[in-house]
Amino acid sequence: xxxxxxxxxxxxxxxxxxxxxxxxxxxxxxxxxxxxxxxxxxxxxxxxxxxxxxxxxxxxxxxxxxxxxxxxxxxxxxxxxxxxxxxxxxxxxxxxxxxxxxxxxxxxxxxxxxxxxxxxxxxxxxxxxxxxxxxxxxxxxxxxxxxxxxxxxxxxxxxxxxxxxxxxxxxxxxxxxxxxxxxxxxxxxxxxxxxxxxxxxxxxxxxxxxxxxxxxxxxxxxxxxxxxxxxxxxxxxxxxxxxxxxxxxxxxxxxxxxxxxxxxxxxxxxxxxxxxxxxxxxxxxxxxxxxxxxxxxxxxxxxxxxxxxxx
Length: 311
Description:
Layout: H1 5-27, H2 30-53, H3 64-79, H4 85-107, H5 112-131, E1 142-143, H6 158-181, H7 183-193, H8 195-200, H9 205-231, E2 233-234, H10 241-254, H11 261-279, H12 283-297, H13 301-304
Antiparallel strand pairs: 1-2
Helix pairs in contact: 1-2, 2-6, 2-9, 2-10, 2-11, 3-4, 3-5, 3-9, 4-9, 7-9, 10-11, 11-12
Protein name: Branched-chain amino acid transport system permease protein
Organism: Pigmentiphaga litoralis
InterPro entries: ABC_transp_permease, LivM-like
């Protein structure tokens, strides 16, 4: 493997994330395990969005819908005394897959601002649905007293959850690398560049885009399962448009259409957020200004500006 700056950055980021639990144990700081566990979960969600936004050019402003559905799959089952992790996982995959298929079949027939607004509308519909679920906490959310239990692996244990998230992220990055380099990935990227040309070459873009949309929804649902176990809490805020906006910022900040961009963006965004919270109560204003400056100066993102490949 040729060691380009992008490859070196990828290795360093992954090594750093892999060593966090070791440092947290040595330093006696479990806070870092929780912080970077959150980074990993949002990195998984951002990688799933990157398939649509970075490679497909589809600006989804309602992607948090699937994060929330994954989280509620865990919370609702746990509320009824079901702590079987495989059932939690199955519920998240099925629910996100079905909702992704139905919503995708609608939104992918539109483009531009209409696509953005309809994805947002779907997310808001489910947001208000969760607000109305008084049995499951309504607007206040609900605590989870039983995490996902996979037998030898229990995700309510912080260390188990961290390494499960880390391994899932590695598998996802490898799968995304293979997917984008495949015929399927080439069609998705070609459709972003020139959809009319792809049609002239004999490809039907809609089935490819719908498949990418459903895959992205399911992977984001897996991130929802993890975030529910990380916080042991579910809330409609997981489905809010602000959460979708944060995922978009993470992808853009790290580098659109790059493999490690969403991971780098998640690390940078959440660390900046945590540092600024400790520094000022007006941290959201400062964070917004910093992001604007970074995007204006470095439009290709943190990873996108590093030489070493097209993805």
